[in-house]
Design goal:
Growth Hormone, Chain: A, mainly alpha, 70% helix, 28 helices, 3-stranded antiparallel β-sheet, 4 domains, 3 strands
Length: 589
């Protein structure tokens, strides 16, 4: 008997875990599609995204500013499933417009994608937290889903046409839309609208137990309590209330109490701005979001292939209509997985690995340590990348000359390609050149090339389709950017959202979260809109230097100002925020 009871208990836990994970995974298809929307610009525009895709990448962030509060109100009024329905419809409309409605449809598609992305980032973390309040690993699933969507967009953009990419990205929201017939509402929402029995049923379902059996046991326990009471048999005796029958089930898994009285508290706005600890927490989170945007990783997510390409080439002039040429001219040839696109897939893989590591380490290592690792590591990587890409330092040619004294040139005459090894000390071609003289091709690198150097300018030029092989010079940007994106996701990309739920009191948390999410969308819009402009004006090495400086300031602020919250109660956190501004080691203990 005892063994059978243990086996049934283990079976219930297993079923409950599977149901929670599946439900969270299905709901996070919205975040996966948002990640696809983020990486779509790089996947479709490729090397032209940095100079031609600024508005295409930034427009969804601008739309998300008013859309995020709308989805929050909708979820509180109609439920999390209603929010998921609107998110799915928004994304399906977006990808349909991008696939079939031409250039103008692309702009409308980006507007719909911004609305869907705002809802995904607002509701998916709430859904995961409410169906599994004691399973902290699910709280990091939205970040993992977004990173996986970005990686999928990089891979699909390198293999498929723009039309096929849009159709493939419409599949996840369609699956989410169909799955709403099976997906359960969260117990918190059901309790908030007074549906106690439905909430108890949902909790039993997520626990893997049977509602009827649990309810029978609870009612029997209440009957025993009533019959053994001293008031039994009197008119004023204890009466069973409908909600009382479900209290044990509501408390068992979620810690929710349907009969708890609502506290009479001050207004959220007054609580947020009146107390010093709340103002300090708000400023700290704003600084972290500024550091996250200033790191430039958000721009790399949308312009990955172009950033890698132009890290070894000069950035061309801005072209605001480049998407017309790339998306809808079917005669334009495109190689399968250009070198920069393959490098972007490596960066996307590092992004996914960073999100997976953050899921495991955020509760074991600590928030402050992860932020320090992230900010300081990103600073070092971006500084090195800026030095490598700085044309004044010429680190690329310095390295190449010592590694391999020849430069590979690919001559493409429209019928076949021919690889030529040109000595670096003989012919020093600019990185962006598309010119080489026909005599260099015809002589096919014989000894007479040694005498071509001085008379080269006297030969009449002939325009040939000639490009340099970037495999050798591109590995350093790919490696450094991959490490940067990995470090971003283990710290700046995930920890600020955890700190929102820990630094603020319950009364001020919702308002603070709304303000900070709006600030995140605004900073993301400014980053995506002007990253390419800054890169054209200062060069990519200049943007790397600026980003490295911002993350360095972020690491200093984290070290001196932000207290550690891991393992601390709300009272201890409030005490630290009310304490001295500089958080020294003795205050941390």
């Amino acid at each position: 008997m005892h063994r059978n009871r243990l086996e049934r208990s283990a079976s219930k836990r297993w079923r409950g875990s599977v149901r929670r994970i599946l439900s969270a995974a299905v709901y996070n298809l919205s975040c996966f599609t948002h990640g696809c929307s983020t990486g779509w610009v790089s996947g479709v525009l490729g090397n032209e995204a940095l100079t031609g895709g600024a508005w295409l990448a930034a427009l969804p962030c601008l739309v998300a500013l008013p859309a995020a509060p709308f989805f929050a109100v909708l979820a509180d009024a109609k439920g999390r499933k209603a929010g998921a329905f609107c998110i799915s419809v928004s994304f399906i409309i977006s990808w349909s417009l991008a696939a079939w409605c031409g250039p103008r449809g692309v702009w409308a598609a980006r507007i719909a994608a911004g609305a869907g992305g705002a809802g995904a980032l607002a509701l998916a973390p709430v859904y995961c937290a409410e169906i599994a309040p004691r399973t902290r690993g699910l709280a990091a699933m939205p970040a993992l889903a977004c990173s996986s969507g970005i990686l999928f967009a990089y891979g699909a953009g390198g293999m498929l046409s723009a039309h096929a990419v849009s159709l493939s990205m419409a599949v996840p929201p369609a699956v989410l839309l169909v799955s709403l017939l099976w997906l359960q509402e969260t117990p918190s929402f059901l309790i908030s609208i007074g549906r106690m029995q439905d909430a108890a049923k949902v909790i039993c379902w997520f626990d893997g137990s049977d509602f009827q059996e649990d309810l029978t046991d609870v009612i029997e326990q209440q009957e025993v309590r009533i019959r053994t009471s001293e008031y039994y048999g009197r008119r004023e005796g204890i009466r069973r209330q409908d909600s009382d029958a479900f209290q044990p089930m509501l408390k068992r898994s979620s810690g929710l109490d349907s009969n708890c009285d609502r506290r009479s508290e001050t207004s959220a706005c007054r609580d947020l701005f009146r107390h010093r600890r709340s103002r300090r927490a708000l400023v700290s989170c704003v600084v972290l979001f500024c550091a996250a945007a200033g790191s430039g990783v958000g721009a790399v997510n949308s312009f990955a292939a172009a950033v890698l390409r132009h890290s070894t080439h000069d950035v061309p002039h801005l072209n605001l209509t480049v998407y017309n040429f790339t998306l809808y001219n079917g005669t334009v040839p495109r190689r399968l997985f250009d070198t920069s696109e393959a490098g972007s897939i490596m960066c996307g893989t590092a992004l996914v690995l960073g999100a997976a590591v953050a899921t495991v380490t955020v509760d074991k290592i600590g928030r402050k340590i992860l932020l320090l690792w992230s900010c300081s590591g990103i600073t070092c990587c971006l500084a090195l990348l800026g030095v490598y890409c700085d044309p004044r330092l010429r680190m690329q040619s310095w390295y190449i000359n010592r590694l391999w004294p020849y430069r590979k040139l690919i001559h493409d005459d429209g019928f076949h390609q021919k690889i030529i090894n040109v000595p670096q000390n003989i012919v020093d071609l600019p990185q962006n050149t598309s010119l080489l003289y026909e005599e260099l091709i015809l002589k096919n690198y014989t000894k007479s090339w040694l005498n071509v150097n001085e008379s080269l300018t006297e030969v009449p030029p002939k325009v040939l389709n000639l490009t340099t092989n970037d495999d050798t010079t591109l590995w350093a940007p790919v490696t450094l950017l991959s490490v940067t994106m990995f470090l971003y996701n283990i710290g700046l990309g995930s920890v600020p959202f955890v700190l929102i739920s820990e630094l603020f009191s319950i009364n001020a948390r919702s308002l603070a979260s709304s303000l900070l999410i709006s600030w995140m969308w605004l900073s993301s819009f400014l980053l995506l809109r002007y990253y390419g402009t800054i890169a054209v004006s200062l060069g990519l090495h200049g943007t790397y230097y600026i980003s490295a400086s911002i993350t360095l300031l972020g690491s200093l602020y984290t070290f001196f100002i932000i207290p550690e919250t891991k393992g601390r109660t709300q009272e201890e956190i409030d005490q630290a925020l009310d304490g001295p501004l500089l958080v020294m080691e003795k205050n941390e203990r």
